[in-house]
Specification:
With about 325 residues, the chain is an alpha+beta fold. Helix content is about 25%, strand content about 40%.
């Protein structure tokens, strides 16, 4: 009998503990307090993370309501002309990697459908990514336009090959100056030399004769194609093609070319050169028999260093750093 009472007291205490349900009440209260604190933080974090996209949707709704007529005229022009756009990722407000060239097929219900013409391989998840699209400059009511900023609504991809892109219609269409560097008018043939190859020769161009190049005495090349330089910057070059012929590489907008640019150092009198891929951004006829090309440097070639002579191409965004450092000498 002496051991019976302690056991009875212990069981009585256990029974009382579970009978009142105080433990369950404490858990509900704690959980409620956590929700009161955590939920606002999560909501505020989500709003901050998507602030740019939410602002885009808000302003887009307003601008399309107020300027729907002008927006509609621009979009009809882009669709009816089958305008090709260059789609580039925006990363922290700066130009990132190029995604593709695509033709605008339709604009309906706030969505812009693009047919991909040419694309770089990518495994990126593009949905919801911010992009800038460049088009060939056009004018409307005295205003110039050549770009717009928007978001990727959806995309189609097979493996790493981009097949289709759907964009949200933008807040507005605008004119963007793409040139980020001051071009230097270094156009003497004894100071700057340029050789150009068709992009198809990029793997073995070093062992091939250039398709067209600058010459020291243009008077000896009457009737034959040759190049002269208008100006140059770390981001691009202005070239003039004299006596263009059919045998030359395709000299159309958005076509890439392999280029070797050599510039004489004013101090050492030695030539410094860079190998680049340049993409034609503008094209016009300066005079009869002369074609002007505005070319942006999009990739830089570097030797692989294994003795094979092969070139490795690396994309450049804000110009060629080595060329920028070298051109600074001409400012001194």
């Amino acid at each position: 009998m002496t051991g019976f009472h302690p056991k009875t007291d212990f069981l009585f205490n256990v029974q009382n503990t579970f009978a009142h349900g105080s433990g369950r009440l404490d858990v509900v209260q704690v959980f409620g307090l956590i929700l009161l604190v955590v939920a606002p933080v999560v909501i505020l974090s989500a709003l901050w993370y998507y602030r740019r996209f939410l602002w885009f949707l808000l302003v887009r709704s307003f601008t399309r309501l107020v300027f729907f007529r002008r927006q509609g005229v621009i979009e009809n022009y882009l669709v009816s002309r089958g305008v090709v756009v260059e789609v580039i990722l925006l990363e922290e407000g700066r130009l990132g990697r190029q995604l593709c060239y695509a033709r605008i097929e339709s604009v309906f219900g706030g969505r812009m459908e693009l047919q991909v013409v040419k694309a770089d391989p990518t495994r990126l998840d593009l949905k919801g990514r911010r992009v800038i699209c460049f088009v060939k400059q056009f004018s409307l009511s005295g205003k110039k336009f050549n770009s717009f900023v928007t978001y990727v609504r959806d995309f189609e991809r097979k493996g790493t090959v981009l097949k289709g892109v759907h964009l949200l219609t933008p807040m507005r269409y605008r004119f963007t100056i793409r040139r980020k560097h001051v071009r230097k008018k270094i156009n003497r043939p004894d100071v700057v030399r340029v050789k150009v190859w068709d992009i198809a020769k990029r793997r073995n161009f070093t062992s091939r004769r250039p398709d067209i190049y600058t010459v020291s005495d243009p008077s000896r090349y009457q009737g034959r194609p040759f190049l002269t330089v208008g100006n140059i910057s770390p981001g691009g070059i202005r070239l003039f093609v004299h006596n263009p012929a059919k045998r030359l590489p395709l000299l159309a907008i958005n076509e890439p070319l392999v280029m070797r640019v050599s510039i004489k150092d004013p101090a050492t009198r030695q030539f410094f050169f860079v190998t680049v891929i340049g993409t034609i951004r503008s094209r016009n006829s300066k005079e009869k028999g002369v074609l002007g090309l505005g070319i942006q440097f999009t990739s830089q070639g570097e030797s692989m260093g294994d003795g094979s002579g092969r070139i490795q191409w690396k994309r450049v965004v804000d110009g060629v750093p080595a060329l920028e450092r070298f051109l600074a000498k001409f400012s001194k």
